[in-house]
Amino acid sequence: MRGNAQMLRRIKQLIFNKETKRMEVIKTQDELFTIPPMAHEPGSIGYMEKILIAQLIVMSRPKVLIETGTFKGQTAKFVSQFLTRNRYDGKLYAFDLPQMIEGALKREPFFSTAANVQFIKGSLPGTLLDHVGGNGLTVDFAIIDSEHTYKQVTAELETLHPFLRPGAYVFCHDYRETDPEYAGVVKGIDEFTAKMGYDKLPIWGADVWGAAVLRKPPLK
Ligand SMILES: C[S@@+](CC[C@H](N)C(=O)[O-])C[C@H]1O[C@@H](n2cnc3c(N)ncnc32)[C@H](O)[C@@H]1O
Prior knowledge:
Helix 2 crosses helix 3 (74-85). The protein has 7 helices and 9 strands; from the N terminus they run H-E-E-H-E-H-E-H-E-H-E-H-E-H-E-E. Helix content is 36%, strand content 25%. By secondary structure, the chain is of the alpha/beta class. It folds into 2 domains: 1-32, no CATH class; 41-215, 3-Layer(aba) Sandwich (Rossmann fold). It has a 7-stranded mixed β-sheet with strand order 5-4-3-6-7-9-8, sandwiched between helices. S-adenosylmethionine binds next to helix 3 and strand 4. The site of S-adenosylmethionine (SAM) has 19 residues, from helix 3 and strand 4.
C-alpha cells in the first residue's frame, strides 16, 4: 500500500521535501531521475536505446534484471550506475561466455566494486535456466542481446518466459525489420510474441539501431 501511495505521488509529480516537511511539486526532471554518462563500444546497445532502457527501469522499478549477451559490459555498467545513482535497489545478472566476461572484468575495474552486477559465465540459454530457475528468481526486466539468430532468440525468450513477472518488460536488441541480416531475430520475436500473447513495440528511427520492447501479459 505504501508503495502504491508513493507511486501515486510521483505520478502526480509530487515529492516529499525533508526540509520543509511538505509535499512539493517536482520542478525539474533530475529530481525524479538522472542518467549517468554513457560510453559506447561498437557492438554495444546505442545511446538512444540505453536511455529507453533507463525509462523502462524508472517505470517498472525492477528488483531482478538480466542481460543475455553482455559483451564488454558497457550496458551492464550503464544499468548498474543508473540503479545506484537513482537509489534503486535492483540487481543485474549479466550472461555471456567465460572469455568475454573475463575480458570485461579485466578491462573495466568498475565491476570489482559494483555490488549490483553479477556476471554468469557459460553458454545461453542453459545458464539462464540454471541460474534463474536454480535460484528461484522472478525476473522483473530483461535485455535480450546475445547471438542474433532465430534459434538463439527463440530459445532465450522461451527459457525466460516462465520466470518473467507478469507485466514485465523485455528489451530485445537488433529487431531490425528491414535488414535481411537480422531476419532471424525479427522472425523469432514475432513468432514468440504472437504465440505467447506478449505486447510488442518496434523501436526504430534516427540514431536508433533497432529494438523491440515486449511486455509479458499482466495478470487480469
Ligand atoms: C551484441 S553482443 C552484446 C552487447 C551488450 N549487450 C552491450 O550492450 O554491450 C553479443 C554477446 O553475446 C554473446 N553470446 C553469443 N552467443 C552466446 C551464447 N550462446 N551464450 C552466451 N553468450 C553468447 C557474445 O559473446 C557477445 O559478447
